[in-house]
Every structure is written in structure tokens, then in C-alpha cells.
Prior knowledge:
This protein has helices at residues 24-36, 40-51, 56-59, 64-67, 144-162, 192-204, 212-225, 250-267, 275-290, 323-333, 337-355, 400-411, 414-431, 457-467, 474-484, 491-504, and strands at 2-4, 74-76, 79-81, 95-97, 101-104, 107-110, 163-169, 172-177, 190-191, 238-239, 367-369, 377-379. The protein is mainly alpha-helical. A hairpin with a 2-residue loop joins strand 7 (163-169) and strand 8 (172-177).
Amino acid sequence: MTVALPAHRPDHDPINLKDTRVQPTRFDAIAKAWSGAASRRDALKLLVAASLGGTLSTLAGSGADAARCRHGTTRCAGRCRNLKTDARHCGTCSTACGLGETCVGGVCTCSGAGCGGGGAEAQRPFPQHVTYATGTIRPTSRSQNEQDADVRAAYDRWKTRYLVKAGTSAGGDLYRVAFGKPGTNAHDVTVSEGMGFGMVIVPLMAGYDPDAQLLFDGLWRFARAHRSRIDGRLMGWKVPTAPGDRDSAFDGDCDMALGLLLAGAQWGSLGATDYRAATTTLLAGILGSTIGPNSQLPMLGDWVQASGATFNEYTPRTSDFMLTNFRAFGRFTGDAVWNQVVAACQDVIDAIQANFSPDTGLLPDFITSKKDAGHTPEPAPPNFLEGPDDGHYSYNAGRDPWRLGTDALLTGDAASLRETRKISAWAQAKTGGDPQQIKAGYDLAGKPLSGSNYFTTFFAAPLGVAAMTVSSQQTWLNAIYDAVRSRNEDYYEDSVTLLCLLVMTGNFWDPTAA
């Protein structure tokens, strides 16, 4: 497989299109010279030559400029390239080989199993058009084909911005999900949460993305190359980080495990990665080091002691109530403990909604418990772990309507439907049915938080998933979908929004469902 690379041009092009001294035929040569100049200074020299009537051979980079390339190399994009071996310029300039291919004698050649976008054949290729639980709804403001195109476009944007090659290993290339947009310091950082997002997104897009399996395997290699210092079956939460801070965060590992199940269902386990074996090992780590032995609740990470004074098995993050994942883990392993984890999470949600958010259904970012025999759950105090809004519906809990809503859609579970519908009813009433009025965080009574007076897809898209559980909210669902489907923000918002779009368009599926 070959890919034509766009010619490189600097951000600011000083060519004056109105300069009558540059004739149209000469302008074509100038553009080619500009794109191939070795530096901005060289490009300016070429433009000066053009204004003084320089020859086309000079402008095109032949003569003295081309002579700088040694025998057997050709100038491409400002550098001398060996077109027989350069995988980005194979045979001709700007002809790039696909993932897993090498350039041999000027021809892109498969150098490993599944290279060039081949991989194993996707068993459930995008799009899938899943039928969700009876009584739920889907967006109707755009056709199914348009919705699928929305997902493809969102995936392409996400992949271009955040999916980064991170070196090679004996097993193949490594890939990571960047924590921020290109050009920012955050783009050099990766967190396990993002790796989990990526390992769920990529296998769902197999069939559309011919390189999905290679990318997925590269993400998993990166995760294995950055293990937690406490439980090596889990990933360290942040890369790079200080050695003493290399411990796990629950949500990243939990989504990676679901991703491995998706990969196994999509491609089987006979290729370079044994997805089934990898899932088994990762789930053993999650259960052994991050599920409370008595509470059956997800703990914040492998750094938490079950009986710790401040952080313990009764102090979960509500966005870690990943019920869809837990049910899949139970079906995969046959271990009833995962059903107990689901039930424990739903009991906590019911208690919070009954005692602290009866009118809104909103959940706090973090939960603590009273020092009573039943460990009665309550919202965490300010600055419990991350900041003053730890006890509010903020940038962790904003994921809850998506997590709970997805479980309701896939299973029709009565508790998940009830809990999700409560949040969705409040949201529509609070905003008057206008998604642009969704604020960036609320207290549990529904009052907007200080500094929250702006719209972001992070809070809106999950509420779109929640609206799918309420048959009377078709107009509200359509409005949310239209508000988020093509908007770009940053790593966190764009990743969560893409995952929600996969659900809203009927393209999220359970890898363990019969």
C-alpha cells in the first residue's frame, strides 16, 4: 500500500499572487521550488531569483542545488533521499510505504505479518449499526450514512492529532495517545486513560482504517513498555513521570482490557499479539490490585490500600463505574465477582442520587464514605484528590452519563436505565432543550460551578448518550448530536466525544455478547 504525502509548505508563504512580474508558468516552478527548498533562506533566494528573471532550471532546484546530493540520492522535500530504501520516498518523491512496509529497491514491500494495512480480516468491520435495547432511540436529524461519515471524520481528526508513533521494539512499532494537541507541551505526554480510550476506539474503527490492528498492537506495546512499579500487569498512569510516581490509574487499565476483548473479537488471537492471554493477565491485575476486596468497588489505582485512612476501597471515582466493561469481563472470565462489582457500583449510584441529588441525579467526581458499619457513600470534600470540585459533577463525573447510558443501551438493565434517565431529564429541563446552555460542571443540586459558563463537548456528548434512553427526548438528542458531531477541542474532549459518537451512531458493540 502506498500513500501520497502532501508537499510541505511553511505556515507563512510570502509569494505575492498579485505580483505581475511572476508569470503563471513561472509561478508553478516557484511553488515547486518553495516546497523543495532546504531552508527558508534558500526559498527566499529562489524568490529573489524569480523576481530578477531567474531561469526555470534554477527555480526547480536543478544545477548547483541538486548537485549537493550524492550519487544514488535524489532531492525530495529539501533533503537528499535514497529512493531505493527510503520508506517515505520509495521509488519516487513523496511516495510513502504503509505501516509495516519497507522500501526495497524502490518498491514498498511487506516486511511482517499484517503489514501494509493488511492484518487479519476484521470480523466486525465499521460500521456495525447495532440495535440497542427496546424503547431506546437514536439520532434522526441525519441519515445513517451521514452519521457513519461523521464518525469517520471525527476519527480521522482524532488519529491525526493524537495518535503518535513512539519508537520501535523487537516486536514492532509503538504508538501512544498524546495528552494534548500538536504544538503543545501536553502533546509530549501520555496518560493511561488516553491509552485506554485509544485501545477501545481503534478496534471499533477496523474495516474503515486498514491499519487498525497494527496501530492497536503498537498501543499495547507502549502500555507494556511503561508498566506500573507496583503491579507490573498494569500500566503506569503517566509517561513520562518520576519513577516513584509510576503507579496505575483504574480507568486506563479497565478500558485497555475492554480494548483487548474488542481486538480478540475483531482479529482473533493467532497473530503477533495473543489478545486472549493478554486480557487474562491484565484482568488478573485489575482484580487483584484495584478492586476492593470487601467493597467490590473500583479503587483509584494500585497505589491505594484497601484499608487506607484517606484513600481506600470505599473512595471511588464515579467515572470508574464502567459497567459495560465489568459485564464483559464477567462473560469472558466466567467469574461472578464482576457481577458483584456491577451491583456494588449501582448501589452507590442509587444512594448518592437518593440522598444528595434527588432532583438532578448528578454524581460527584469522587466519593468517600461515612465511618459507619455500612460505609454509607457521600460526595468527597473539596481537594480530596484533584481540586475544589472533587465533590461536584465536574471533569471526571462528566463521563458518567456516557458510561451508565452505554450499559443501559446495550443491556436494557433496569437500574442503569433508571439512573441515566434521571440525569437526562434534569439536563433537558435545566437547559430548556438548548445544548449550548450545558455548562462545564455543576454542584449536585444543579447550580453551575464557578467558571463553568462555557460550552464543551465533554459535558454535552455524554448527555447525548443519556438522552438515547428516553424515548420522549428525540428533539433533545438530535440537538445534542448536531452540536457535537463536528466540533474539535482538545485530547480529552475529542476522545470522549468520539467514543460517544460511536455509541450514538450505533457503532459501539459488546465483544462478549452472544
